[in-house]
Design brief:
Two copies of one chain form a homodimer. By secondary structure, chain A is of the alpha/beta class. The first copy, chain A, is built from eleven helices and 14 strands. Chain A folds into two domains: 6-175 and 281-368, 3-Layer(aba) Sandwich (Rossmann fold), CATH 3.40.50.1820; 178-274, Rna Polymerase Sigma Factor, Chain: A.
């Protein structure tokens, strides 16, 4: 399979927020569209928990990306206008260095020897990529979900690093309800005997724990009303009938989707990234959110959330918008009436894409002024 | 400990909806207030998944019940006016016969030998209790949560059995999102090695599975916004710090609450009742909900739901109210703006109780006409 993913190997050490460091590390990213001569048209997309760097198709890799309809020629994030960069997060297992990567000091995967990971470290590594690419200021920083946390931290640490900022279904810190969901997911994984304190292997993989954690995740990504219209109460016996389960189509759907996920994501990566989100609070050390974001220079910002999102709920979107506005940043805020919950930005193209297109049209106009 | 719980031993066999039967069985219930001479002032409360029959304190048992502020002299369900009966569901492990009860044929607990349990069976057994008590027609049937499902089935099977009907945070069938949550809870329990196909005992108890299932339940009972105000991001190391967990107060809260639950409820009872809810659809065999409820005679009905309930969501409350209204039943419908989610009827007294009081005042007035 041809891949458009590029790898930047950084040999300068990365000091981690909670102590420890990576002597060297790799970042996986993809790009679309040309960087203009004055390097002013770059759009950086910082991604959520599970996506890789392949956000959209290209000539090199025509397979659809995870944000296929959002990025491309004439798409809301228009690659005829912008040089778009999508980064796989530090800590992930999709090309960038993470707990599943080989520790150069031991020749074995890091696993639990990987230093504690924070969103601030992800942001820091992303900034090193952008610096390496010779981009002094991004046109736009884009952060959906966990990517929005990384973006806020990036902007806080580098207040003049972008002219525009689009945050989608994200938050300035992890809500206690979201912490509870992710905490239970982690408990599910480490309760699997095959987890074995991180000493799992291909043959002994925490399949049950990962499968159930993924199901819980999927529960938190959608809404009750969406599943009513999608599945209703249709019966389906796709999987061999198990005691106390698998009578309904919704159960088969979750089982199939969770099975696909189980071996596609490293359990340690999952645990590290999940915990990093819980720890994150951009206001740590500041009296409040407006003060935490006070240094950030932006021409405009756009905050989009979804009414039915229970993981990054609407009130958290409003908090970001209010804080940016109180700092004098021209900020638009939209609370979409999608039924798709947290996943809306990935699946509700019809509703989401026009809002992103409108913001990027505005950016184009503002930057011409 | 003194108990006010009474036990009715029924020796006539109960045929179960999905086949099989109970040769004899016991129902545990409590009562408050006097039954009037013409036996017309009875209020039956059918309960949710986990409550016992002790809904409120009394002289015999002064310990607070699970609906303590709702039932009593001068309370919204006023025991100076009404003879209130609270029933522990068939299938439960709190006094009524269920999978944890001793099978008279073997002298051992039923466990998986208990016949498949449906909400219709719970309703049927409740009707046998009321008949035994010599009550021909209830003044009011009250059903919160699963109890509302039982109540709908009771009324469907016995269309003239009550004059008034109060359903709270319930539904006419299980929503696919709720099925998914309960299905995952059941998977958590049966994935615990100690579950051992139902052959657990006091020493080998599915502690992990029950603990995690309870946590998932608690996640579905509340709302993100409530936990924001309640816990925020306060740190707490109440439990020994475990890898990847237990940094936040919300995590300690869930752990403590789940530990309390683990041995207080029988795993088999939990599985049977949980599955009964998923199976339930009062419209099975009818073209739609209005037709399913068409035979039911009521003077009035009251439907109360909560905007933030993700387990029995607001749209399901509206479905019941619309169906009753379309059948010409004088029905009030309230969608409360509580942050307490599905648990609001148990914990948000200030908001909930006045609505129940108003409905019972109306009932009092209607019945005098």
């Amino acid at each position: 399979m041809p891949s458009a993913t590029r790898f930047l190997h950084i040999t300068e050490p990365l000091s981690m927020k909670k102590g420890g460091h990576l002597a060297s590390f790799t970042l996986a990213y993809e790009t679309w569209g040309e960087l203009n001569p004055d390097r002013s048209n770059a759009v950086l997309i910082l991604s959520g928990l599970s996506p890789n760097a392949h956000a959209a198709s290209s000539k090199v890799d025509p397979s659809p990306g995870w944000w296929e309809t959002m990025i491309g020629p004439g798409a809301p994030i228009d690659t005829d206008r912008y040089h778009v960069i999508a980064l796989n997060s530090l800590g992930s297992c999709k090309g960038s260095t993470g707990p599943a990567s080989v520790n150069p000091e031991t020749g074995k995967p890091y696993r639990l020897d990987f230093p504690d990971l924070c969103v601030e470290d992800i942001a820091n590594s992303a900034h090193m990529l952008i610096t390496h690419l010779g981009i002094e200021q991004l046109c736009t920083m884009v952060g959906p979900s966990m990517g929005g946390m990384s973006a806020l931290s990036y902007l806080q640490q580098n207040p003049n690093s972008a002219r525009h900022f689009l945050t989608i279904s994200s938050s300035s810190n992890a809500a206690p309800f979201s912490i509870a969901i992710r905490s239970l997911q982690r408990e599910l994984i480490v309760s699997d005997r095959a987890w074995n304190e991180g000493n799992y292997d291909e043959k002994n993989w925490p399949v049950k724990g990962m499968r159930m954690a993924r199901k819980l995740g999927m529960l938190s990504y959608r809404s009750s009303e969406e599943w009513r219209t999608r599945f209703g109460r249709r019966k389906q016996d796709y999987f061999p009938t198990e005691l106390f389960g698998m009578n309904f189509e919704v159960e088969s759907y979750l089982e199939a989707a969770a099975r696909r996920f189980v071996r596609s994501f490293d359990p340690c990566s999952y645990l590290y990234l999940s915990r990093a989100m819980d720890w994150f609070d951009v206001s740590d050390g500041y009296p409040d959110l407006p003060h935490a974001l006070a240094e950030i220079n932006l021409k405009t910002a756009c905050v989009i959330g979804v009414e039915t999102d229970i993981l990054f709920p609407a009130y958290q979107q409003k908090e970001i918008a209010d804080a940016l506005r109180s700092n004098g940043i021209d900020t638009s805020f939209t609370n979409l009436e999608s039924l798709m919950g947290h996943d809306a930005f990935l699946v509700d193209d019809a509703l989401f894409n026009p809002h992103v297109a409108a913001y990027f049209d505005r950016i184009w106009f503002e930057d011409k002024l």
